[in-house]
Design brief:
Helices cover about 25% and strands about 25% of the residues. It is built from twelve helices and 19 strands. The strands form four sheets. Strands 1, 2, 10, 11, 12, 13 and 19 form a seven-stranded mixed β-sheet that branches. Strands 8-7-15-16-17-14-18 form a seven-stranded mixed β-sheet. Strand 11 and strand 12 form a beta hairpin. Helix 1 packs across helix 12 (about 420-435).
Amino acid sequence: MDEEYDVVVLGTGLTECILSGLLSVEGKKVLHMDRNDYYGGDSASLNLTQLYRKFRPDQSPPADLGRDRDYAVDLIPKFIIASGELTRILVHTDVTRYLEFKQIAGSFVYRDGKISKVPSTEMEAVKSPLMGLFEKRRAKKFFEFLQNWKDEDPGTHQGIDLDKHTMAQVYEKFGLEPGTQDFIGHAMALYLDDDYKTKPARPTYERIVLYTSSMARYGKSPYIYPLYGLGELPQAFARLSAIYGGTYMLDKPIDEIVTDADGKFIGVRSGNETVKAKQVVGDPSYFGAGKSSEGGKVRVVEEGKVVRAICFLKHPIPGTDDADSAQIIIPQNQVGRRNDIYIAMVSSTHNVCAKDVYVAIVSTIVETDRPEQEIAPGLQLLGPIYDKFVSVSSIYTPTSTGESDQIFITRSYDATSHFETVVDDVRNVWKRMMGKDLELKKREVEVEA
């Protein structure tokens, strides 16, 4: 460990592994360390033994769940948007060669006590039980407006300026009902709350177009998912880093971030060994997250908590046409909350659990001091639950950009149901470290039918 590196990366979560892969490709000499003996950090996928060890150390997994090795249970539930930013990075780096993807079978939204498929085409919108006859006509006009929009052709703008008018004003122009706004804003644009309505409409327009174009690519839903679980993603980027000369050390405790008299980063100490580098990047848990700072510098702050319940079911989720995988969004207005509740469900089709077992993860941003009660509306949709593992995790964010001390800290994984915010963070950290934007090429990704 005596040689000097360009960058030391701490933690093998997805954000860190994407960065170490991209930095290695860029020609940087990278050392990647993790205190755990497995890849993935907070975004790992665990087998049954690891899952029980984490949540119920005094209990061994019941025999009727099947073989340990059949399981890869995600700690953080997210799906990949088919035309989204993570797909672009996977394709740009060729990491797709280490992964196989399957489609998620359906995208659903909760409304008035039941779940319905999110309409993604004009044809589906016309048949959707989410809207009455007149509302369907208005929605059709709204979707046609989005599809026909061209920045350079004012004739397609219908008097709307996406950069000036708020989304609320756009909804109003088309006369859309609150319930329709709910599924457009939450199930298509994938906003967690309603703050977007008071902001300029362009980001919402872009998100809806991303959803519909992702939907158009593979048909059933806009989401794809890697076989053997999300924990495959960080490992695939770790392989990329290794091919380009990156060095990996797992099961390595990190005892100190070493800085000089001016507080600038010099190296990382593990036991009595110190490795020197020009820059360090890592997840908040390596920079004092969750610990009180004793006279030291506060490098991360908590900006909220997420509650997640990993549920084992012996049946598909009722009302989803027996889908082998699904996403269900419960818009906050429907259950009197500020933040949406998400359900992500996968099964043995994705090689993440034994046959006839379904893994559904219910999550939301914590708003009260009784987090488990907050996800009750989601748990109620699942039918009988065989077993569940509930966790509450803090979302940490760095207090500084890192340019002054060369210590770059990533953000915790949020409550969103997809990876777009993870990629935003990758781009953000990359720009702070490298002083330039991350450039990506465009290509297609293959998905198993």
